[in-house]
Amino acid sequence: MTKPMPEKPTVDGLEDVWGPVWEQDGTYRFDRTGITRDDVYSIDTPPPTASGSLHIGHVFSYTHTDLKARYERMRGKRVFYPMGWDDNGLPTERRVQNYYGVRCDPQLPYDPAFVPPFEGGDNKSSKAADQIPVSRRNFIELCERLTVQDEQQFEHLFRTLGLSVDWTQSYRTIDDTSRASAQRAFLRNLERGEAYQADAPTLWDVTFRTAVAQAELEDKEMPGAYHGIAFHKSDGTGDIVIQTTRPELLPACVALVAHPDDERFQDLFGTTVRSPLFDVEVPVLAHHLAQQDKGAGIAMVCTFGDTTDVVWWRELQLPNRAIIGFDGRVRSDEPAWIESEGGKALYAEMAGKTVFSAKKVVVDALTESGDLIGDVKTIQHPVKFFEKGDKPLEIVSTRQWYIVNGARDEQLKTTLRQRGDEIAFHPDFMRVRYDNWVGGLSGDWLISRQRFFGVPLPVWYPLDADGNPVFDQPIVPTEDQLPVDPASEPAPGYEESQRGVAGGFQGELDVMDTWATSSLTPQLAGKWETDPALYDLVYPYDVRPQAQDIIRTWLFTTVLRSQLEADVVPWKHASISGFIVDPDRKKMSKSKGNVVTPLSILEQHGADAVRYWAASSKLGTDAAFDPQNPKQIKVGRRLAIKVLNAAKFVYGFPLPEGATSVTEPLDIDVLAELGSVIEQATTAFDGFDHARALEVTERFFWTFCDDYLELVKERAYGTATESTHETQASAVLALRAAIDALLRLLAPFLPFATEEVWAWTHDTSVHRASWPTVAELPTQAEPSGLLGAVGQALIGIRGAKTAAKASQKTPVTHAVVTAPAETRALLERAAVDLAAVGRIENLSFVDGAELAVTEIELAEQQA
């Protein structure tokens, strides 16, 4: 049913008008009836992290995805466009702690009547000691409650933005189905030998008390200092001076290492030295990773100061003498390898201290003993942090779960590189980030996390007769038992009373890394194993849209899981959005405090205006945003308003009875130009270049409004001199054909304004209409350049009137336009329209070097 054309169209409030209609009519519903995979366009939509609020960057990137979804739907595809919510992860836990004033203590019993001390606010200034401890189950219930609230707000914002998501196809990464899917994939990895557990050096965040994977690291420039420390040759013939930024790890030293080609140390390889203060004998060894031009050229290997220490420890088969505990402090138990009384006494002084305090103890002792050589040299150097942490990472020895990723398997690494080549990256230069990540992998994917709100690792361990866990004989559930929580459910074949009892079992307390679930978003959205018919229709997907900074995490791990499980790439295309930067060109992020929340922007300017701003940026390109002066958003709002007004103007021309064909040169040319725009916009969208599609469409639209509409309106009204029924019909047919096609070209960008206009003359949604084609236009002529030439002439006529200080409505007795011969020939074909719009009684054309109005005689002056 069509909607009455309003007296004064407005963009204000269109979101509230059309959002409910789309939902009620199922405009964006994925209808799988009677279709095959070839009929489907499937999108592996990013599930935003449900912790806090969305920011303007989400609006930016999710709009890019929606543009493509709307285009493919209009091209006749059945678009599978789901939405997920990434519930589990450290951001959620931290938000729950701050929001409710609690912290998780898994040793506490569940309290069904627990009420949090408060609710609301960020409470970021509170300390962990001030937060009330609650059981793991109580904590998870609060996580569930808060994420549901956040997701409702997120959905409201995305609906306001006009995302054409099918909201019936949604999931949460922590719901039962998602947990079962993640656990199923893990069990299959385990069965095939792709998942394993090991005691190994692990990057550890001392604040969150959890292991950190390679993909979650970021380097931060931090102040440090080189300390020259003298090691004593075991044969008493002298000292070897090393330079280190971590003197507090001196008691953890296991070797000195230099490059095998370094002539300074050739005589030392194979000998031993003794560490100062602690008097522990360590070997001097050669390894190619030692840097001859760094520090003293010879390095102290400690377990573990950094990731290079881990490589040296593993490849040189060195002992593990770790001294840093899970809390980031020096462990209290006395190391067995320190035998001297002085060394034991010094270590006792260090025990329990932070690494900062321990460093002072060691440096003071080295100064007193004379083993601190030279001046301490301050430096700035990169230090590894957990991307969500605020303290440098330590490396501790822990038992963790891993999934193979090609770091230690060249065949798998080669396959993953080949899979990357099968994916079309948009823009293509983003591919190098994937290639570099695969090539630089240094260890398998650590997936276990010492957290609470996440997908539990589905394993238990039998306890031997002494009550010790037998880790190499894990107990696993069958797939039909999933999802399971080993922390609260007994192992298969056991009773709960046998938990923690000799001969019984213990459940795994660790949960999976959030990426271990998010890497399965194609499976979660497509209902892998639970709805095979749907899964076969959508998988592998057509596109994965995402941000550039998680190519190493989300994109890579999804490719990995798909390879391990199905031996295919998970999607054909990867579209990568750029970042949003503030006016100072700094990336917007919550940690920097320069994030803009988008709801107020949407309410103030309208969704179409905000979408226009987002659509103006190409994929992979960063966009600046100034909330105080959002120029591009204002331009978008002006465009949306012009669409309403121009369409109302066009529809105001009654279609003459019997009008069947476009006959006039200017009408033919405007449709020919429109045909070229349709072809360019189609090619651009097919190539994931929405910004180009918008650019060519918008440019033509303004020419259509500013030039063509003005030129033909007198003829369309039937009031122009020499106007006939045929010429009037030609103008109105061309106008209607053009606005009909333009509405569809602009529909992906301005869904609300175009739907409003479309409803004035149609009883179906523009978003279910077909994408325009050249073949549907009333004429398929090639552009002649007439529209452009006439537009220039119109500017000249207007300029001449302005120069004469006359109104544009002033009649003209005589005007002469000069132009090159080819342009003159074009203008003569549209003389009637030019004369009508300029109110020119006698219009003539003469040859000239350039197009210009050389004579003009106003009727008022003649009088």
TrEMBL record:
<dbReference type="InterPro" id="IPR001412">
    <property type="entry name" value="aa-tRNA-synth_I_CS"/>
</dbReference>
<dbReference type="InterPro" id="IPR022874">
    <property type="entry name" value="Valine-tRNA_ligase_type_2"/>
</dbReference>
<dbReference type="InterPro" id="IPR014729">
    <property type="entry name" value="Rossmann-like_a/b/a_fold"/>
</dbReference>
<keyword id="KW-0030">Aminoacyl-tRNA synthetase</keyword>
<keyword id="KW-0547">Nucleotide-binding</keyword>
<feature type="short sequence motif" description="'KMSKS' region">
    <location>
        <begin position="587"/>
        <end position="591"/>
    </location>
</feature>
<keyword id="KW-0648">Protein biosynthesis</keyword>
<protein>
    <recommendedName>
        <fullName>Valine--tRNA ligase</fullName>
        <ecNumber>6.1.1.9</ecNumber>
    </recommendedName>
</protein>
<feature type="domain" description="Methionyl/Valyl/Leucyl/Isoleucyl-tRNA synthetase anticodon-binding">
    <location>
        <begin position="669"/>
        <end position="811"/>
    </location>
</feature>
<comment type="function">
    <text>Catalyzes the attachment of valine to tRNA(Val). As ValRS can inadvertently accommodate and process structurally similar amino acids such as threonine, to avoid such errors, it has a 'posttransfer' editing activity that hydrolyzes mischarged Thr-tRNA(Val) in a tRNA-dependent manner.</text>
</comment>
<comment type="similarity">
    <text>Belongs to the class-I aminoacyl-tRNA synthetase family. ValS type 2 subfamily.</text>
</comment>
<dbReference type="InterPro" id="IPR048044">
    <property type="entry name" value="Valyl-tRNA_ligase_actino"/>
</dbReference>
<feature type="short sequence motif" description="'HIGH' region">
    <location>
        <begin position="48"/>
        <end position="58"/>
    </location>
</feature>
<dbReference type="InterPro" id="IPR013155">
    <property type="entry name" value="M/V/L/I-tRNA-synth_anticd-bd"/>
</dbReference>
<dbReference type="InterPro" id="IPR009008">
    <property type="entry name" value="Val/Leu/Ile-tRNA-synth_edit"/>
</dbReference>
<comment type="subunit">
    <text>Monomer.</text>
</comment>
<dbReference type="InterPro" id="IPR002300">
    <property type="entry name" value="aa-tRNA-synth_Ia"/>
</dbReference>
<feature type="domain" description="Aminoacyl-tRNA synthetase class Ia">
    <location>
        <begin position="21"/>
        <end position="102"/>
    </location>
</feature>
<dbReference type="Pfam" id="PF08264">
    <property type="entry name" value="Anticodon_1"/>
</dbReference>
<dbReference type="Pfam" id="PF00133">
    <property type="entry name" value="tRNA-synt_1"/>
</dbReference>
<keyword id="KW-0067">ATP-binding</keyword>
<dbReference type="InterPro" id="IPR033705">
    <property type="entry name" value="Anticodon_Ia_Val"/>
</dbReference>
<dbReference type="InterPro" id="IPR002303">
    <property type="entry name" value="Valyl-tRNA_ligase"/>
</dbReference>
<feature type="binding site">
    <location>
        <position position="590"/>
    </location>
    <ligand>
        <name>ATP</name>
    </ligand>
</feature>
<keyword id="KW-0436">Ligase</keyword>
<dbReference type="GO" id="GO:0004832">
    <property type="term" value="F:valine-tRNA ligase activity"/>
</dbReference>
<keyword id="KW-0963">Cytoplasm</keyword>
<dbReference type="InterPro" id="IPR009080">
    <property type="entry name" value="tRNAsynth_Ia_anticodon-bd"/>
</dbReference>
<feature type="domain" description="Aminoacyl-tRNA synthetase class Ia">
    <location>
        <begin position="130"/>
        <end position="625"/>
    </location>
</feature>
